[in-house]
Amino acid sequence: MATLSQRVHLWLSGNPEDAVLRLIFRLLIVTTIAALGYDLAGTQAGRDSDTSQETAPFSLPSLPAVLSPWLPDGDRLTPLPQPGGELSRPMTFELGSGGRLQASGTIAPGSAEAFGKELARYGEYIKTVVLNSPGGSVSDALAMGRLIRDRKLATEVEAGKTCASSCPLVLFGGTERRVGAKAAVGVHQVFAVKSTEVAAPRDQMSDAQRISARCLRYLRDMGIDLEVWTRAMETPKDRLFVFKPDELTKYGIVTVAAAPAKS
User: Fold this and answer.
1) Are 250 and 224 contacting, i.e. CB atoms less than 8 angstroms apart?
2) Are 148 and 142 in contact (CB under 8 A)?
3) Which residues of the chain, if any, have pLDDT below 50?
């Protein structure tokens, strides 16, 4: 009986050189795919282990950052800015001249209730809500926007200021909406602060879909082009899609042209 080495020698002598090379090439491909699969499995297991303790119950699945260049206008996505100073603190309200209520800071749980108290306190004197916020609680932002619309107030983002994440939901509530020169109005996927309670994936998706439905209905009621929500859902939660000046008008975000910037 021929040994293994003898069989290999006979096979090699009976096959053309190109067939041998093709076999070697195929073996290399199979080996590479197997190695990649093993690495990916190990990486996913590590991620599952890291996130098992904390789950964001209202998170929408976000695309990996590596895919951003393939998203529509992917080059428009900017890293989500980390607020500092007053913007990192819960939202505060300060009454200015001309019936302008300044709302600055993060929209925290309870901000809508505090906002309602300010409206009740000053009554009809308030005409415009001026926003400078990195966003925060989606539920509170929706409630604030509804209050603004019910009272037929205007909203504004002053020149050079920021209204990001859930803040535009408040902006949309204005019967008149202004955005100053070089102000940043940006959106991304809605999500909630991480919780120590682990929710089932099905519950997470159900909650996310309910929030998405609430936001869509809200945009429709406020007269905002639903393309705004498409932009938000395309943008990973660690990025921001900032609208250009012409898009602010195109999508109905701005209803009153901003005053020209002072030279």
Assistant:
1) no
2) no
3) 43-71, 192-198, 261, 263
- Interatomic CA distance for residues 93 and 115, integer angstroms: 7
User: What is this structure's pTM?
Assistant: 0.69
- The pLDDT tens digits of the residues spanning 142-194 come to 999 999 999 999 999 999 999 999 999 999 999 999 999 999 999 999 864 44
Return d(Cα 234, Cα 251) in angstroms, integer. 16
C-alpha 58: how far from chain center:
12
